[in-house]
Amino acid sequence: MSAPSFQLTGRRALVTGSSRGIGLALAGALAAAGAHVVLNARDAARLAGAVEDLRATGASVEACAFDVTDEASVLAAAPALGTIDILVNNTGIQRRGPLATMPLADWNAVLHTNLTSAFLVARAVVPGMIARRAGKIVNVCSLMSELARPTTGNYAAAKGGLKMLTRAMCAEWAPHNIQVNGLAPGYILTEMTEPLAADPKFDSWIKGRTPAGRWGSVADLTGACVFLASPAAAFVNGQILTIDGGLSAVI
Ligand SMILES: NC(=O)c1ccc[n+]([C@@H]2O[C@H](COP(=O)([O-])OP(=O)(O)OC[C@H]3O[C@@H](n4cnc5c(N)ncnc54)[C@H](OP(=O)(O)O)[C@@H]3O)[C@@H](O)[C@H]2O)c1
Hints:
Elements: E1 12-15, H1 21-32, E2 36-39, H2 44-56, E3 61-63, H3 71-81, E4 86-89, H4 104-132, E5 135-140, H5 153-173, E6 178-185, H6 194-197, H7 200-209, H8 219-229, E7 240-243
Helix pairs in contact: 1-8, 3-4, 4-5
This protein binds NADP nicotinamide-adenine-dinucleotide phosphate.
C-alpha cells in the first residue's frame, strides 16, 4: 500500500483574491506542492508584488487581475486563465453594520464578493474540468457559514450561501469527477481582521473563546487547502472543513 499523494505537480491552479492574506498563503502552499498558480485581485500593482515575492521563493506563479464580481471581467479573463485544474474561490470582504440600518450597497457588495463571485468564476472554469473529467474546487467559507454575530448579517448570509453553493456544486459536478469542498476559517490574522485584533476587548474575547487560546495564522489553513486540492481527497466531496482552533466545538 502506497502513501496518499498530496503532490500537485503538473496542475494549474487559480486562487481568487490572492494578493495578500489567506489567498496569498493558499497560493504559496499550492505552488510549494508543485502546482503552477494564477494569482488574482483587482489592484494590479499589489498583485504584481505578490507574484514577485512568491517567485523569489521558487514558486511558479503568474498574475491575472480582474474583478470577480463583474461577469464581463470574469468572462474576458477566462481565455488568459488557461486550463484550470484547481480553483480556490477565496475572495471576500466585510462591511460591518446592524441589519436594521445597513445600506443596500453594503449588503450587495458583500453578497457579490463572497458568494456570487464563486458562482461566476466556477462557471467560467468548470466546462474545462467537465471535459477533462477532473477538477478540484475549494470555496473559502467561514465560521460564519454556521454562526452569526451582530453586525455581520450580510457576511453570514453570504458565507452560509457559499456553504450551500458548495453542496450544490458537488451535486452537479461530482458525477464529472470534480471534488468541491469548503474551507471554513475561524478568526485569522489578516488585513481584514486588523481592526478586530487592534481592539483589546475583541482580542481578549477571541483568545478566551478559542480553545487554542490564540488567533489563527494564514499558515494554519494551508495544509487543509493542499489536501482538498490533492489526489488524497479524491472521495471527499461537498464537505466543509472548519479550521478555527476549536471555537465552533465549544460554548
Ligand atoms: N481573516 C479571517 O479571519 C477570515 C475568517 C473566515 C473567512 N475568511 C475569508 O477568507 C477570505 C480571505 O480573507 P482575508 O482575511 O485574507 O482578506 P484580505 O486580507 O482582505 O484579502 C482579500 C483579497 O481579496 C481581493 N479582492 C477583494 N475583492 C475582490 C474582487 N472584487 N475581485 C478580485 N479580488 C478581490 C483583495 O485584493 P484587491 O482589494 O486588490 O481586489 C485581496 O487580495 C475571504 O473570503 C474571507 O471572507 C477570512
